[in-house]
Specification:
Rossmann fold; Ornithine carbamoyltransferase; about 15% strand; single chain; alpha/beta; Asp/Orn_carbamoylTrfase_sf; transferase; about 40% helix; four-stranded parallel beta sheet
């Protein structure tokens, strides 16, 4: 599996993500407040999608507050408007999870926001979803997926 990029461009190897997720599974109660006081913006068209619910539950499990922000940006949005919106999101939140955005739009938001910007880490198509099968099969699949999302949130040092 290729090395994936962290929100600020630091390499994150799948093995490192798995190791963090396994550590989380073992120490979950101790990490319940790891992101206490942190605010995360969930930029998504639908707050009730499976991916949005999964991300929100994973972040809340670490003590973060998640606010749904309706996605109003698109490929046709003027670059200055996207940059201004990204800077505003960067002032309001400690991190942003973007679901259903194009790579070009996501890169512009990352460049301007100044905070970790995740690219659909709760989605079934995200590279980390393939690692779910590598975690303890005794855990329910949704729990394994949440551990991988939480590992990514903690790795980003929000």
């Amino acid at each position: 599996m290729d090395i994936a990029l962290q929100p600020f461009g630091r390499p994150l190897a799948p093995a490192a993500l798995l190791a963090r997720a396994e550590a989380l599974a073992a120490r979950q109660p101790a990490l319940a407040g790891a992101l206490k006081g942190k605010n995360i913006g969930l930029v998504s068209a639908a707050a009730d999608s499976r991916e949005a619910r999964l991300f929100s539950a994973a972040a809340a499990g670490l003590g973060a507050k998640v606010a749904h922000v309706r996605a109003a940006l698109s490929e046709s949005s003027p670059a200055p408007a996207v940059a201004e919106t990204a800077r505003l999101l960067g002032r309001l939140y400690d991190a942003i999870e973007c679901q259903g955005m194009s790579e070009a739009l996501l890169q512009l938001i990352r460049r301007e926001a100044g905070i970790p910007v995740f690219d659909g880490i709760a989605g079934a198509q995200h590279w980390s979803a393939a690692l779910t099968a590598s975690l303890d099969p005794a855990l329910p699949e949704e729990r394994r997926r949440m551990l991988l999302i939480q590992a990514q949130l903690l790795e980003a040092a929000i």
